[in-house]
Input
Amino acid sequence: MPAVALAAMQPMTDEELGVQTGQAFIQIDRNTSDPNYDFSRFTFGLDVDVSMNADLVQLGRYDDPDEPANSSDIQISDFSLGYIDESGNVIPFQIKDPFIELAFDKSGSAQNLVGIRLGFGGAAGKLSGNIEYLNGNLEVRVEGSARPIRDANFLAWLTMRNSDILGADAVLVAGPGEANTGEPISSLARRRANWVGIDNDTTMECLSSGCSLGASLATILTPGGCSLLGITTCFPLKNFKTNDIGNQNALDPSSSNYAGGLYMSFQSQRVVWPESGVTAEVGAFMNIPDGGITLDFEQSFNGIERIRTKFLDPYYD
Output
């Protein structure tokens, strides 16, 4: 007669549990340090590779007298995550630890839900699309040789070298032909932008060693109305067709350098989400960090070309 093995589940002692390690699929955290809001975050311990294409991403579609007609808080056509490399390989967009976060206003007697955020603990890869309108934040850096500045201004010619590098951070602004040209969108009644540039109160910095800007030269290096000595300092968002998020290693994805801060949120009032340092405006909001976008003065309107995102891609075929 064959032997029969019988087994039953047995409870583990505290000592046995103490030597075990593991991680929950879902982690729940509560943040009460903000004086105005309580935040509850649900983090999913996942590593996700995604390759996706959408003809149109349109969020926050409602009429607002302060906004352009037929616009949305977020409106991106031909939206893609991931790309196709030169050898025809699909390189996915990498996501670590996606989470959902809720914001509750605690100023009243009862807490009211005022915002929800879909974010990622880390992201690496290529995000593509034609950004037609954006209520959000896109990190852009403008840097370039001082040569065109020296050619346009005698004082700059006397005090700077052609090899000196000038730079400044760009923000979402009202663009040429719009009211308050060159003013940050965050300072205006409207929220939906389709231009990014050096605003009217930001002075170009000299990044080269031994370079010093006096008060007179600093005034010259402050743009006005999207122009600096005839050099364009504002650029259409739709020109940035592919943005690098983090530093992806396509050959060895496990060694990619993930960037934090990529999220999309919806709020009924302005909210500064934890760890973001960015004020999310009312409505649908998208934060695109570490865009890796650095423009030269001479390349102002060339932008960034779109990478192939489909095997049959109308941008290439």
User: Anything to note?
Assistant: The first strand starts at residue 26 and ends at 31. The chain has one domain: 25-299. Residues 25-299 form one domain.
